[in-house]
Specification:
Blueprint (H helix, E strand, L loop, with lengths): L1 E4 L4 E3 L6 H8 L2 H6 L8 H10 L1 H4 L8
Antiparallel strand pairs: 1-2
Length: 65
């Protein structure tokens, strides 16, 4: 489900279906250099990261739909 959509952007919540993207993002050399290693090296790690981070925080978000 999309939270916000404009002509150029679509903002939606992360789901476990985004695991491959999260693995790529969190292991990008610039991410590692400037943000740090989150210990996410597999899709299973990414699913856990998504569920225990973003998804877990959604009930406390100021964005409601």
């Amino acid at each position: 489900m999309n939270i916000l959509e404009t002509d150029r952007r679509i903002l939606c919540r992360l789901t476990i279906d985004d695991a491959a993207f999260i693995v790529d993002l969190l292991n990008d050399s610039l991410f590692l250099r400037f943000i740090g290693d989150k210990g996410v090296t597999s899709r299973d790690d990414a699913r856990k990261y998504i569920l225990n981070g973003p998804v877990d925080s959604y009930p406390y978000s100021c964005i409601k739909y």
